[in-house]
Predict the 3D structure of the following.
Amino acid sequence: LVQIGVPKEVKNLEFRVGLSPNSVRALTEQGHQVIVETDAGVGAGFSNTDYQQAGATLGSASDAWQQGMVVKVKEPLPKEYDYLQKEQLLFTYLHLAASRGLTEALIQSGATAIAYETVEKNHQRPLLTPMSIIAGRLSVQFGARFLEKQQGGRGVLLGGIPGVSPGRVVVLGGGIVGTEATKMAVGLGAEVTLIDINLDRLNQLEELFGSRVRLLYSNSANIERAVSQADLLIGAVLVPGRRPPTLVSRSQVKTMPTGAVIVDVAVDQGGCIETVRPTSHSEPIYEESGVLHYGVPNMPGAVPRTATEALNNSTLPYVLKLANLGLGALEADPALAEGLNVVNHQLVHPAIKATFPDL
């Protein structure tokens, strides 16, 4: 029997929740006890009653955090650091490469921290995939909205209409985020250019999109030319556990049309466009060099119902393993072992150790 806490997310306008009522039911049916902070799921459309009917106990934030295992969505924020405790198991997105403060707090606490985004199976990141799909699709949805004149954009309809050219979308990176962004942009009828450094991936994307998308090899000349013509520029570069390289410089952003929009999905790891900094759902955009910048690091939080259910479909098998086997689950499942970031006051994930060699 394990006691599992589910605190309410405290990040700005973050309405996702670590466990859905269906996941709670799966855990309580196996004899585990789940303590959910009151109203933790309300933003995602799950009522307190839904949780109680699934077998959860409602409590305060500190009740949820006092349990031996805590399941969240987003990384703990500074006001939550005091809740971290020795031998507690924390399972959530951490993105430690982007936060030295959180990395230090976790090491100091003695908690065991497993990050969704570094769980790796067959070179895939199964717990990042559902959110990457959502973020990729949303990047075009938000880009289209902020291109509207009333939002401060150029006033361009991405799909154009007969007799008027469609908007130009440039996607940097052909992974899951970039592929999903491209699907959405193609679906809207935009003129799409996708740039990636992996030739094998470009060949796969040609099979997927045919001649509907312009596929370019990633070099500075191709990026420079494409960026200068983009109505919407989407950063979709992920280097697992590390900051992505800066592909678009400040001077290149200045060459973009006035009122163009940049959406950098990689902002939670530091971003791949020099002028992008993190924003929030309440203040998602700022203007620099005449270009609107969208840098919300928790984009899927905009669709919390879909995102919570999608995330739980992927995380629940791992949550059950951890609940049933404790840290033995790491030996039983090599994919889950890859998720281990911090244990026994030590940083253990190689990519994050490379980011903070002195910790």
